Amino acid sequence: MVSPPHEAMHRIFQHDPGLFSRVSRFLGVDIPAPVKATALPTDLTETNPVERRVDTLLRLETADQGSFILAVEAQGKKHPDKPASWAYYTAYLWTKYRLPTALLVVCQDPATARWAQQPVSCGPPQLPTLTVQPLVAGPHNMPVITDPEEARADLVLASLAAITHAAEPDVDVILKALSTALRDAPEDVAKPLIEFTAQGLAKRPAKNLWRNLVAVDLSFYTSYLAEEVRAEVRKEVRAEVRQEVRAEVRQEVQAEVRDEALTQGEARRAAADVLAVLAERGLPVSDAVREVIDGCDDPETLSRWLRRAVTASTAEDVVSGA
After folding, report:
1. Which of 48, 135, 182, 230 is buried most, with the most CB atoms less than 10 Å from its CB?
2. In terms of DSSP bridges, do strands 66-74 and 56-62 run parallel, antiparallel, or are they unpaired?
3. What are the two backbone dihedrals, phi and then psi, of residue 143, each rounded to the nearest 5 degrees?
4. What 3-state class would DSSP assign to 186?
């Protein structure tokens, strides 16, 4: 399954193809800014039934150096089969378009980045034949942008920098600088970068900070990220309301139980008084009458029976007719 960070690390180049030339200076190469960019189909499948797809594929045209093909791959971890796939991509694209072909691999993990940038040859040591050595952008070479003014100067680069540093200790400061810079940006500029950044952070702890930062400005509340925050807040509020209602109900039930207990206590005492008067007067009390008196929990009825017990001829007369 394709993960959100994977999508964010390559789709951001579709969003702004010129980003590659700005990133290249951190990779030790000088790629001129394109004057035109065209998104190309990412399906590299031939008649062979094995399907091969590159993550993002662009044709970039420059003023001085002509056109070239850029394939962008997001790589989350080391995979022994990837160098062969990358060799296929570059050879196929070079053959198909007859243009110089570049491969950029974007990583969030330093170890994966070091692995990805190692040259790999398809032939034996003395006959390398075809060597693949992609450019790699990752936490080891992407800038740490902690100044909002620097982030504001290139918001897309700042977003990519935040994504590639998602697991680094400095990510909190990077995100604060980016969110500050985005507050001044138009919604059509800020919205996709907010979502790219959120996707790139995935389930890392920094995503919670990012959501809190963008929530400060209500103009940011137009994306799926806002809906996700709202859903969690609703859940929290519902839990709080349930606790409040439960507390209120508990108080009501406690009052009811207390009243019931008091009523039952009064009834027991009143029943004992009725039986005491009958005993004092020497009137015999059958088990049936005693059961009726002891089983009564109505204070008014017991009060009436107590008055009757003072003058009744028999115990049965006390409870007759209730």
Report:
1. 182
2. antiparallel
3. -65, 150
4. coil
Residue 47 pLDDT > 60, yes or no? Answer: no
pLDDT digits 0-9 by tens, 8-46: 888 888 888 888 889 888 888 888 889 888 888 887 765
Q: Which residues contact 316 (CB under 8 A, 6 or more apart)?
A: 286, 289
Q: Which two tokens stand for residue 10?
A: 């390559």
Nearest to 113 by CA among 142, 86, 91, 85: 142
Torsion of CA 248, 251, 257, 259, to 10 degrees: -110
Beta strands at 66-74 and 135-137: parallel, antiparallel or unpaired: unpaired
Residue 167: CB atoms within 10 Å: 16
What is the rounded distance in angstroms from the CA atom of residue 230 to the CA atom of residue 299?
Answer: 55
For 276, phi then psi, to 5°, come to: -65, -40
Residue 318 bridge partners (DSSP): none
**Helices assigned H by DSSP within 140-284:** 148-153, 155-164, 171-182, 187-201, 206-215, 224-280
Structure tokens at 131: 């060597």
Asked whether 290 and 275 are in contact (CB, 8 A), the reply is yes
In terms of Cα–Cα distance, which of 65, 56, 51 is closest to 103? 56
